[in-house]
């Protein structure tokens, strides 16, 4: 100890003694004065100064008191936590105190104990003192050790980490006592063990013969041990015996010494018992002495495994009968001396040197000597010479060629493997050492490892590993393979990477990859993965780029067992974080156990990330072990990351049902349809359902394949699968799950086509799936069910296209109703069916939703994604649609069709897709679709609806018609208007320029409210025209100087809007201001002539409806009820201005309104003309007779005529509705019968169409009200649809006599140039059927065909042919045309009455044709037979039926007469009642020499004289409140015409064809005529006549005159 330390220590001791003086009595102080210096003087001052002198005093005193009494040989030790109140001192540490006889190994053994408990030592005070005690062991005196007159005792005070756990303190104290006891046993028994050793040596020395040499060396070794080269710790003698057929070492009783002295109840060597029999048999080997290691670590002196030296005992036969075993540790001298000086070892060394046979003093000989000298000594003791030789020789060779080498020796008892590893010194590090250890542990299935390192002056470092094993047998291993693995490790990760890259990719490519990645892999990666993993990972890293930003690898880590899998994801720029990956992987049915991201930096500075996920696949380990499932799992994951497959719970089917990603997408697509179709289960519930029944799910997919795979379909297999699935479904107990699974089955069975197997231009399957479904085959779908629908699914877009018939058209809507867009589209297609009654195709409608849309605030990106979704949707529709090439059906590629040919698919614009027609046509062209740009009307090479103003012009026909009946000519008289929209819009802008007499008092759109209380019609018209012609405009652009007093333009975003006196007066309000929505609400209720909607929104509902019923939340704040409207007329240029019930309520209150389907039908009609013209000209172009440019020029030339053709429908539809309005009360019963009939046949759903119930009809009847115009408009559409489809189903459209219907559909330039081509038009039959149905219903009304069929079961074709004959024979169109020319010249109501007169004529003639001309041959032949004659007679009617002789005619003439009604027309119309039998007259006259006029005059003479005319009028006046009354009335009238005809023929025959044959015949039949006259006089005397009376009169007439 240095002088300074001595001085400081003395000072500290003085402080302690000062404390003692203050705490102890004078006597005690004197008694202990010598104790404190000798207690602390050997302790490090640096350790002591950390404690206060008070605490050191306390510690010394506590130890002193603890040592106060001790028996001879007693070990005293305790462990406690000093407490000031209890112990008189304190410490933050736990204290160990020992009082023991002084002996070796105490401190080092205690330190070993603390190390085993991982406890830090903070203070060690260890004085060895000469201690005097009395007989009782009480302490008498303490002296320094220089005085050896007293026994020496060791006092040990240790402060360690604080332990508060009482159980742990107790365990530590027990272990401490065991250590102290073992030390005492070793020390006390050492002399005995040496005596035994000497005795054994003497015994061995007596051996003679073969064993003498071995015995001599053994004796020498035992003597060497005794020469302080071995620490004797224990000894025991064992007998080798047989027990239960196995060898055992039985302890010889009382032979144990040292730590083996007391082995308790043990009878046999425990370590020997653990060995398998094959290793126990080694005990019989005749080897005299065994040097080995035990399995137990020493707890004394040094924490090494205990060495044992076994000396075998033999019987007289030379058989091993036992073993005497010494346990202990070789001392330091044993490790330091040369092996040549150690018995036994010197023999091994000599044998090796001899075996190598190197030249004496040569380099190799010297090297060998060094190798053996420096060989791990423990190894030399154990290793056999025959094993040591090759190892030593191998080590020598390393001096010549240094390299990585591994030398392995397995313990004879398989308890451990000794491994000598030589590695380049420069490459050696702790990291390398640990990695080598890991390799060895894995190779030998090690449980623990120890090592020692030797680094000398050479180029190699030596590491000696002892790998301990727990198994009874070592695993098989190949040293060369382990060595190669170590070489790879040691070579350096980077160098190994270089080598393996070159091996894998060749020199050039390998060098390039190495330069790119040599410094890229982080340390964490290198520690976890071998270089061979990195080489594989580099391939994945090289595969990722912008087009494929993600790669992956699923693998099983070799160090994990069971269901452990790992997944590596490779990604550029940023890692695939756990938050992004976790939901995806969990949806796939696996749990993420852990995640390790590694950033790999490339040579060019770019970085890529490897994310390594530990996966727990739960109970799916067996499935995941299959290569196909692994492949499908990775493919699915890649598709999810690429967003080609959605991330949801269906993905677990990859593991649950072994489905690949496309099959999962199929299940998902069908599930999405189930939800859209009306199954209200959540997606999560459906996901769980299909996962609960993997066998059913798998079978459903297989059924889909068997039915629809174009290359692999198998109908027989499909039948078997269907039966199997139904059988499995019978076992599904849960009703909800049964509904879901049966829903899947129903949709699969209803699928007629799918593009599932189609591939794109890139050769990959398409990213979307379309299914063509026969909707009626799906029982869970709500009504009405379309004929077909196409369901489109992809992760990006979903959509549905519903079709009412094979030939149908309608818009495609960009919907925002993600959850129920099919419901939206279903409602729209129903309305479209009604609207399309005027055109060739029936109704269809489509809708799609974007699923990955950006925020709407980014308008450009939002629109771009919407267009992309639209393109996918259009493509998906075309994928399953037949094409036509030169008239031949070409089915879609890779599609199995389970339905007939179906080439007609036409779409149109709708909400959100107004400008998309060119896009759709571009796709059509790319597909080579036969419709070309007729596929989507309204494109750039079509009719511009806004430019034509066609929709507004059509709506304006309704406006004009309504106002004509109110006595207003909108084109010449001012009228007030409230408008919805702005001048930039098509329907509003065009509409508000269709009359210069519009007085627009108010208008609003989503931005502004326009008020002009007393507008100037002329000036405001000009200003509106200016706004319309601006590229873009809003109401804010309106010249405010032109607005009348009190008006203005106001923002709808304003909190409130001030009201001028003029506005207040108009709105009849006292409020000075209103919120914008309140103002609009009041404007809608204001008194006005016309409410015109050219915008978007539903503003009117019925008072019986809620706002929710209107399904337009945006308009909820402003909406009014139909009975609140004070407008005289409502025109719906925009769709859904009113709910249907709102319209009805307004109409019942006296308002004039039709429906949106009537008002804005011109748009859809124009589009249909465009499509059909393009189809016609497309065939011309295909034949090479026209270029696209020429076609487009021709289309443009015909614009105006197409407009006129379209508007003709608007004129006729509003005309028939006006007529029906006048007769609605009278026709109520007929309408009711028709509604009931159409409901019965399934053509109509009264509730869906908001038609009145039977109860409501009875209420109307009592109120003398009929159906309103909006209701009649619905019936009008359905009657057209019904007749259209009925005609189409017959041969009528193929009758060449009806070609004029087809020809007249087209503009005249086409009629003149392409009449022949029209006959080949793809939709020839549909055009004829539709146009003929429209002509008939527009002229004859909604109930005409129905009533005809009520009377007799005539077919629709026969009725149509009869009508065609009747209308053309009488040239009814000419008469109707003359009446129509009287618009605004005669009162509109009167004009409609005149139209009805002509209609009645045609109806009665139609009935005549049906009864007299069936079966029909050529209709043209019939027309030719009668037309000229009938029209000649018609012209003569005023002369044949003079008013002066026919009072009824005179009265009618007077009633219909008007200054603007031409007299000639008046005369004909007044006599149409008499025109009905003209065809009878013509037939009567056949073969007669009399002229037609003469026959006609006689015919009418008979009718007048016999009062048949009166009888006819009486029959017509009969009621027709039910079907039977109508039938009876009609039959009676037909009977009358037949009687009249027969009478005329009889008179002609009897009158010898004289000019006055009627008079002659009457005179001849004078008596009978007089009787009949009296009968009619009697009938005429009654105030009311009924059917029975008139029937009796008819019978009497027949009996008297024709009997």
Automatic annotation (TrEMBL):
SUPFAM superfamilies: Aminoacid dehydrogenase-like, N-terminal domain, NAD(P)-binding Rossmann-fold domains
Domain NAD-glutamate dehydrogenase ACT3 stretches: 549-620
Organism: Chromobacterium subtsugae
Keyword Plastid carried by entry: no
Residue ranges constituting the NAD-specific glutamate dehydrogenase C-terminal domain according to the UniProt record: 1265-1598
UniProt protein name: NAD-glutamate dehydrogenase
Domain NAD-glutamate dehydrogenase N-terminal ACT1: 35-176
Record's keyword terms, sorted: Oxidoreductase
Pfam families according to UniProt: Bac_GDH_CD, GDH_ACT1, GDH_ACT2, GDH_ACT3, GDH_C, GDH_HM1, GDH_HM2, GDH_HM3
Residues in NAD-glutamate dehydrogenase ACT2 domain copies: 405-493
InterPro entries to which the protein is assigned, alphabetical: Aminoacid_DH-like_N_sf (IPR046346), GDH_C (IPR048381), NAD(P)-bd_dom_sf (IPR036291), NAD-GDH_cat (IPR028971), NAD_Glu_DH_ACT2 (IPR049062), NAD_Glu_DH_ACT3 (IPR049064), NAD_Glu_DH_bac (IPR007780), NAD_Glu_DH_HM1 (IPR049059)
Top-rank taxon: Bacteria
Domain NAD-glutamate dehydrogenase catalytic: 726-1219
Signal peptide annotation: none
């Amino acid at each position: 100890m240095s002088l300074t330390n001595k001085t400081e220590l003395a000072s500290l001791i003085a402080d302690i003694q000062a404390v003692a003086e203050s705490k102890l009595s004078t006597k005690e102080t004197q008694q202990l004065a010598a104790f404190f210096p000798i207690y602390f003087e050997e302790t490090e001052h640096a350790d002591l100064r950390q404690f206060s002198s008070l605490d050191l005093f306390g510690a010394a005193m506590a130890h002193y008191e603890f040592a106060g009494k001790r028996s001879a040989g007693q070990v005293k030790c305790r462990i406690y936590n000093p407490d000031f109140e209890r112990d008189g001192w304190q410490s933050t540490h736990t204290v160990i105190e020992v009082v023991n006889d002084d002996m070796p190994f105490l401190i080092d053994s205690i330190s070993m104990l603390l190390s085993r408990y991982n406890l830090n030592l903070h203070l060690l005070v260890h004085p060895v003192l000469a201690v005097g005690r009395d007989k009782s062991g009480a302490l008498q005196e303490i002296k320094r050790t220089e005085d050896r007159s007293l026994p020496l005792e060791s006092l040990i005070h240790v402060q360690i980490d604080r332990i508060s756990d009482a159980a742990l303190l107790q365990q530590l104290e027990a272990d401490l006592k065991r250590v102290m006891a073992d030390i005492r046993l070793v020390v006390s028994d050492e002399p005995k063990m040496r005596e035994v050793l000497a005795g054994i040596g003497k015994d061995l020395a007596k051996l003679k013969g073969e064993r003498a040499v071995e015995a001599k060396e053994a004796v020498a070794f035992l003597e060497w041990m005794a020469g302080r080269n071995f620490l004797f710790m224990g000894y025991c003698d064992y007998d080798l015996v047989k027990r239960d057929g196995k060898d055992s070492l039985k302890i010889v009783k009382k032979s144990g010494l040292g730590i083996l002295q007391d082995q308790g109840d043990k009878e046999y060597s425990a370590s020997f018992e653990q060995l398998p029999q094959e290793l126990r048999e080694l005990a019989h080997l005749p080897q005299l002495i065994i040097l080995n290691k035990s399995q137990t670590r020493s707890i004394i002196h040094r924490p090494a495994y205990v060495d044992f030296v076994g000396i075998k005992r033999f019987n007289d036969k030379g058989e091993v009968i036992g073993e005497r075993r010494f346990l202990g540790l070789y001392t330091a001298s044993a490790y330091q001396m040369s092996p040549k000086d150690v018995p036994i070892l010197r023999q091994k060394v000599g044998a090796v040197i001899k075996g190598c046979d190197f030249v004496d003093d040569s380099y190799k000989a010297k090297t060998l000597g060094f190798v053996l000298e420096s060989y791990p000594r423990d190894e030399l003791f154990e290793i056999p010479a025959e094993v040591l030789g090759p190892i030593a020789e191998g080590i020598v060779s390393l001096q010549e060629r240094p390299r990585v080498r591994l030398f392995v020796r397995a313990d004879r008892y398989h308890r451990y493997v000794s491994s000598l590893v030589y590695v380049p010194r420069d490459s050696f590090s702790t990291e390398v050492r640990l990695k080598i250890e890991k390799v060895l542990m894995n190779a030998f299935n090690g449980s623990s490892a120890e090592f020692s390192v030797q680094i000398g002056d050479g180029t190699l470092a030596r590491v000696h590993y002892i790998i301990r094993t727990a198994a009874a047998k070592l695993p098989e291993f190949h040293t060369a393979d382990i060595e190669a693995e170590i070489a790879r490790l040691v070579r350096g990760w980077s160098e190994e990477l270089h080598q393996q890259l070159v091996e894998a990719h060749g020199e050039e490519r390998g060098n390039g990859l190495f330069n790119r990645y040599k410094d890229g892999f982080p340390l964490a990666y290198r520690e976890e993965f071998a270089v061979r993993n990195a080489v594989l990972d580099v391939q994945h890293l090289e595969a990722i780029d912008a087009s494929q930003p993600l790669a992956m690898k699923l693998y099983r880590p070799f160090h994990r067992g069971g269901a452990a899998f790992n997944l590596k994801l490779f990604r550029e720029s940023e890692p695939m974080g756990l938050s992004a990956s976790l939901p995806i992987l969990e949806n796939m049915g696996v749990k993420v156990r852990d995640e390790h991201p590694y950033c790999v930096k490339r040579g060019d500075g770019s970085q890529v990330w490897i994310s390594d996920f530990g996966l727990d696949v739960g109970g799916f380990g067996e499935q995941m072990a299959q290569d196909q499932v692994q492949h499908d799992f990775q493919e699915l994951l890649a598709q999810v990351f690429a967003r080609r497959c959605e991330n949801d719970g269906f993905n677990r089917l990859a593991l649950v049902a072994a489905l690949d990603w496309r099959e999962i997408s199929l299940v998902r697509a069908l599930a999405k349809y189930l939800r859209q179709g009306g199954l209200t289960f959540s997606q999560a519930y459906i996901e769980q359902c299909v996962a609960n029944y993997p066998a059913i799910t798998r079978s459903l997919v297989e059924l889909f394949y068997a039915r629809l795979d174009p290359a692999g379909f198998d109908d027989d297999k499909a039948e078997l699968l269907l039966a199997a699935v139904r059988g499995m479904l019978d076992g599904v107990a849960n009703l909800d799950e049964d509904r879901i699974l049966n829903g899947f089955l129903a949709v699969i069975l209803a699928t007629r086509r799918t593009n599932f197997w189609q591939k794109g231009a890139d050769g990959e399957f398409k990213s979307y799936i379309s299914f063509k479904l026969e909707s009626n085959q799906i029982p869970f779908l709500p009504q009405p069910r379309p004929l077909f629908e196409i369901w489109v699914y992809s992760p990006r877009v979903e959509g549905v296209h519903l079709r009412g018939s094979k030939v149908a058209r309608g818009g495609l809507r960009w919907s925002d109703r993600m959850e129920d867009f099919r419901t939206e589209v279903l409602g729209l297609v129903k309305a479209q069916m009604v609207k399309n009654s005027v055109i060739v195709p029936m109704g269809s409608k489509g809708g799609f939703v974007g699923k990955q849309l950006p925020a709407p605030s980014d308008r450009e990106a939002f629109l771009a994604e919407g267009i992309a979704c639209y393109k996918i949707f259009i493509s998906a529709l075309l994928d399953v649609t037949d094409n036509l090439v030169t008239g031949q059906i070409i089915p879609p590629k890779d599609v199995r069709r389970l339905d007939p040919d179906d080439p007609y698919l036409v779409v149109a614009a709708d909400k959100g897709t107004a400008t998309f027609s060119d896009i759709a046509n571009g796709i059509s062209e790319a597909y080579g679709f036969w419709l070309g740009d007729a596929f989507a009307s309204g494109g750039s090479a079509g009719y511009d609806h806004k430019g034509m103003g066609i929709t507004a012009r059509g709506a304006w026909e309704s406006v004009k018609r309504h106002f004509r009946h109110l006595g207003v000519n909108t084109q010449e008289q001012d009228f007030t208007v409230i408008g919805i929209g702005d001048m930039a819009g098509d329907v509003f802008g065009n509409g508000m320029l269709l009359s210069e007499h519009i007085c627009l008092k108010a208008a609003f759109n989503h931005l502004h409210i326009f008020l002009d209380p007393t507008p100037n019609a002329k000036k405001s018209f000009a200003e509106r025209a200016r706004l319309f012609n601006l590229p873009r405009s809003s109401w804010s652009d309106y010249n405010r100087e032109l607005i009348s007093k009190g008006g203005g333009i106001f923002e709808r975003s304003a909190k409130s809007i001030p009201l001028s006196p003029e506005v207040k007066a108009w709105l009849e309000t006292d409020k000075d201001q209103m919120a914008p929505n309140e103002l609009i609400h009041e404007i809608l209720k204001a008194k006005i002539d016309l409410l015109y909607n050219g915008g978007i929104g539903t503003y009117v509902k019925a008072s019986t409806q809620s706002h929710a019923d209107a399904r337009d939340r945006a308009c909820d704040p402003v909406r009014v009820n139909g009975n609140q409207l004070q407008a005289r007329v409502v025109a719906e240029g925009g769709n859904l201005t009113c709910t249907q019930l709102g319209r009805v309520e307004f109409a019942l209150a006296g308002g004039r309104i039709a429906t949106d389907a009537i008002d804005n039908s011109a748009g859809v009609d124009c589009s249909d003309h465009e499509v059909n013209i393009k189809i016609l000209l497309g065939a011309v172009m295909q034949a090479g007779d026209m270029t696209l440019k020429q076609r487009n020029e021709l289309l443009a030339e015909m614009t105006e005529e197409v407009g006129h053709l379209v508007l003709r429908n608007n004129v006729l539809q509003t005309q028939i509705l006006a007529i029906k309005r006048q007769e609605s009360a009278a026709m109520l019963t007929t309408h009711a019968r028709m509604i009931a009939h159409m409901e019965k046949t399934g053509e109509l759903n009264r509730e869906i169409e908001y038609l009145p119930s039977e109860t409501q009809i009875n209420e109307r009847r009592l109120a003398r009200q009929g159906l309103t115009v909006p209701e009649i408009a619905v019936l009008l559409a359905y009657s057209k649809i019904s007749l259209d489809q009925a005609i189409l189903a017959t041969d009528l459209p193929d009758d060449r006599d009806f070609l004029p219907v087809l020809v007249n559909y087209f503009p005249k330039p086409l009629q003149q140039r392409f009449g022949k081509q029209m006959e080949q038009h793809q939709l020839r039959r549909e055009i004829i059927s539709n146009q003929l149905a429209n002509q008939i219903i527009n002229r004859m009304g909604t109930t005409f065909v129905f009533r005809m069929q009520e009377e007799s079961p005539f077919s629709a074709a026969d009725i149509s042919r009869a009508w065609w004959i009747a209308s053309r024979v009488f040239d009814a169109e000419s008469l109707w045309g003359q009446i129509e020319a009287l618009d605004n010249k005669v009162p509109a109501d009167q004009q409609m009455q005149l139209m009805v007169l002509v209609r009645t004529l045609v109806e009665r003639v139609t009935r005549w044709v049906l009864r007299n001309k069936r079966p029909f041959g050529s209709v043209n032949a019939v027309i030719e037979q009668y037309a000229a004659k009938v029209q000649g007679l018609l012209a003569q009617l005023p002369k044949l039926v003079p008013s002066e002789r026919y009072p009824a005619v005179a009265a009618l003439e007077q009633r219909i007469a008007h200054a603007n009604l031409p007299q000639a027309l008046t005369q004909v119309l007044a006599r149409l009642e008499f025109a009905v039998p003209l065809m009878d007259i013509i037939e009567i006259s056949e073969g007669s020499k009399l002229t037609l006029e003469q026959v006609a005059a006689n015919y009418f003479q008979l009718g007048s004289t016999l009062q048949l005319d009166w009888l006819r009028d009486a029959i017509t006046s009969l009621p027709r409140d039910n079907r039977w009354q109508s039938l009876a009335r009609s039959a009676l009238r037909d009977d009358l015409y037949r009687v009249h005809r027969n009478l005329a023929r009889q008179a002609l025959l009897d009158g010898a064809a004289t000019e006055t044959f009627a008079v002659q015949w009457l005179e001849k039949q004078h008596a009978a005529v007089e009787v009949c006259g009296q009968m009619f006089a009697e009938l005429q005397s009654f105030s009311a006549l009924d059917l029975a009376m008139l029937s009796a009169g008819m019978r009497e007439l027949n009996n008297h005159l024709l009997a």
